[in-house]
Amino acid sequence: EIMKLLDYKKHRGKLERSFHGGTFTGNPISMVAGTATIKELESRHVHLQLNRIGEYMIKSLEKVAEQSKLPIHVTGTGSIIGIHFTRRKPVNARISYLERWNEEVYPLLHKRMLLEGIVYVSEHMAHFFLSISHDKSHVEKLVNVFSKFIDSLERALKSG
């Protein structure tokens, strides 16, 4: 079993064992708490709920992107979603950078979202990570703000 490679008592030599570090590595209380959390999440089907709201968000953002005349792509799975202003739909992080048609759009979208009370990690990458506290109303607000942003972006690009 792969976990046996982490047993430093059986594998004393550095080249014999796998290294795994972390803040709470080997802490039995952290392990018990983590296991209890996973059981609670599974019993309440939290992952299914997150995936449903995520899929709703992906489809809603894709609809806005399809209605736009700009090359905009939405990627994601479950509760992890990305918006890309790229010439083609990215299949990896490298493509998502190489195929960008405008670097300035990302910070503009980030600022617009912040002004509307929507926060995400980086102004250089429009990635969203949903949590169990998000519901359909949060997604609808984000999609509405995104749609208005795209409308204003199209007008600005058209006017030169």
General description of the model:
The protein is built from five helices and three strands, in the order ααββααβα. The longest helix is centred in the C-terminal third of the chain and has 24 residues, at 136-159. The chain has helices at residues 28-43, 46-67, 93-98, 105-115, 136-159, and strands at residues 73-77, 80-84, 126-129. The radius of gyration is 21 Å and the shape is elongated. It has 160 residues and is mainly alpha-helical. The chain has one domain: Aspartate Aminotransferase, domain 1 (Alpha-Beta Complex), CATH 3.90.1150. The protein has a three-stranded antiparallel sheet with strand order 1-2-3. β1 and β2 form a beta hairpin. α4 (105-115) crosses α5.
What layout of secondary structure does this protein have?
Layout: H1 28-43, H2 46-67, E1 73-77, E2 80-84, H3 93-98, H4 105-115, E3 126-129, H5 136-159
Antiparallel strand pairs: 1-2, 2-3
